[in-house]
Amino acid sequence: MALMVTETASSSFPSSTSSPATGWKYDVFLSFRGEDTRNKFMGHLHDALIQKGIIIFTNDENLERGKPISPKLSKAIEESKFAIVIFSENYASSTWCLDELAKIIACKKDMGMTVLPLFHYIDPSVRKQMGTFAHAFGKHEEKENKERVEKWRDALTQVGNLS
């Protein structure tokens, strides 16, 4: 699948199309584990945001396992005012999702991005990295360098601590 970028000119939500001085190209960047939420919750959320005229960047590519996020995706995160992170059962098993999350946290820190975590059929205490998250991180520690895994753990803890 290709990248899916949804833009609308009739936005009632403040966006870069209505106020170019903000520097934001997208109102919202959606981060999600496709196999868990694409045709369920995320699809409904996406449609509801579009109906409200919100400009969304949703990455909907078929991704190769183990590959880092693309420069295009990294730029889209930087160009978004908000990030909605949809945590689901298998979110932490995806290195792609964890790289996105680390980039989102960097943008929160460096650029003031607002990050909104959503918990899709999982306990909101993901910062504790228990259950499927603990299992996923155990596997990552076997394959990835320690620094990369620690960056992911830190990002997950930071987002999990948001109210």
UniProtKB/TrEMBL annotation:
PANTHER family on file: TIR DOMAIN-CONTAINING PROTEIN, TMV RESISTANCE PROTEIN N-LIKE
InterPro entries linked: TIR_dom, Toll_tir_struct_dom_sf
Organism of provenance: Quercus rubra
Start and end residues of each stretch annotated as Disordered: 1-20
Name recorded for this polypeptide: ADP-ribosyl cyclase/cyclic ADP-ribose hydrolase
UniProt feature, compositional bias: Low complexity: 8-20
Domain TIR: start-end pairs: 24-159
Pfam families to which the protein is assigned, alphabetical: TIR
Molecular function terms from GO: NAD+ nucleosidase activity, cyclic ADP-ribose generating
Domain of life: Eukaryota
EC number(s) from the headed UniProt entry: 3.2.2.6
The keyword Hydrolase is assigned to this record: yes
Substrates-to-products reaction catalysed: NAD(+) + H2O = ADP-D-ribose + nicotinamide + H(+)
Keywords recorded for this protein, A-Z: Hydrolase, NAD
Top EC category: hydrolase
UniProt GO BP: signal transduction
